[in-house]
Amino acid sequence: MGRRALLLLLLSFLAPWATKALRPALRALGSLHLPTNPTSLPAVAKNYSVLYFQQKALAGHLHICIFQLNHYKTPLVDHFGFNTVKTFNQRYLVADKYWKKNGGSILFYTGNEGDIIWFCNNTGFMWDVAEELKAMLVFAEHRYYGESLPFGDNSFKDSRHLNFLTSEQALADFAELIKHLKRTIPGAENQPVIAIGGSYGGMLAAWFRMKYPHMAVGALAASAPIWQFEDLVPCGVFMKIVTTDFRKSGPYCSESIRRSWDAINRLSNTGSGLQWLTGALHLCSPLTSQDIQHLKDWISETWVNLAMVDYPYASNFLQPLPAWPIKVVCQYLKNPNVSDSLLLQNIFQALNVYYNYSGQVKCLNISETATSSLGTLGWSYQACTEVVMPFCTNGVDDMFEPHSWNLKELSDECFEQWGVRPRPSWITTMYGGKNISSHTNIVFSNGELDPWSGGGVTKDITDTLVAVTISEGAHHLDLRAKNALDPTSVLLARALEVRHMKNWIRDFYDRAGKQH
């Protein structure tokens, strides 16, 4: 696996991206979630209305529709300084179909690095449990993503404008929004709030409970790699899990991929070999010798993406994919002991499952691995400042070309792109790393198929810092809407998560009753 791809695995998770929007060295690997037009996708909840309006009070707007889209105009650009009062419009969604003023709750989604409508539409779990928990659903958009841009079109102009894009500022936005909701919605003031999020959003949910325990009674942090920092976990664990997914899905699948890199190297040594590779892989543009590392990175990104969306049913997350897509891919990678040309023809068939399962694609574009072009710049800046996640490969425990973690290379890339250098120890300083046992009421869920589980909490820390493991789960499968093909492990996980949330809600009302 190439230098560039490994340096930017830290851009991979949920971040939407498009390669043309960034320098090649700051391209995201294995990114998830956002479509080109998120509002056009089917929502989990049917028959909802989307309304745009600006107001400082929510009184009277509830019960109009399943959810309304509101602009909240009071969050400060900088919560931690006192020499500016500049504000911006933060977008959030509210759904109150099943909310009860008496004995109800507020489920608060801590928005990820992208358009909040997409996360709302793809977090079916919250919609599925809303009636049972008598819950109002709130989906808060993360600053610098979607339409919540502190400086409008200038938000990504330079590092001076991006200086306020941090997890700490985002958490403060959420806190101010919750205060606003409780102050302006009749019946919400004395209700418990539970933070919920997946991936980076899951990290934010956990960190919100840690930093603002008086505002959230608990948190569900799904697929949240809060320990993928510094040396808290081995840098190679992510790619090792990707490899395990492929190895378990076919006896010679990962070995075929491991051998494909040398086959590409050998065939690309000549002009005729490059021409043959272009045709065999059905690429849209002719390969040159300068493209080979990019080609290998693109293929690596594809395997990573497949590991994250290896769902038990057909899905259309990054691309239209069949159920258990890695098993389908591995049907073409059964024999690593073949000629270079035959091996790479098999690699093409495997890639074609990801890029052309619909059968409508005429050629493969090595500049694209996902369907989105949103959210890239913000996440690349975050990965260059505080969200610094070490990744490495060795080619032995994993199926990729060896590459060591090199912080200096990343730092130089970030300085060239943004004029900033990363602070790799800041997240552990701010949020505690593995020293979090003093906190309470957080459920950390992880799927064993998800490569991000390697940086997640997979064992109970205390009785109230609980790990839920989903043996057949990919990236936050538990937050997706219920499906007839859901494996038993995710059904049990969701039931356990709801039980914890019910306990938090009951304890909140028990304490409130004693105080009165």
UniProtKB/TrEMBL annotation:
Keyword annotations from UniProtKB, A to Z: Carboxypeptidase, Disulfide bond, Glycoprotein, Hydrolase, Lysosome, Protease, Signal, Zymogen
Main localisation: other
A Pfam family matched in the record: Peptidase_S28
A GO cellular-component term linked to this record: lysosome
Signal peptide positions on this chain: 1-21
Function: Cleaves C-terminal amino acids linked to proline in peptides such as angiotensin II, III and des-Arg9-bradykinin. This cleavage occurs at acidic pH, but enzymatic activity is retained with some substrates at neutral pH.
Name of protein: Lysosomal Pro-X carboxypeptidase
Biological source species: Papio anubis (Olive baboon)
Source taxonomy: Eukaryota, Metazoa, Chordata, Craniata, Vertebrata
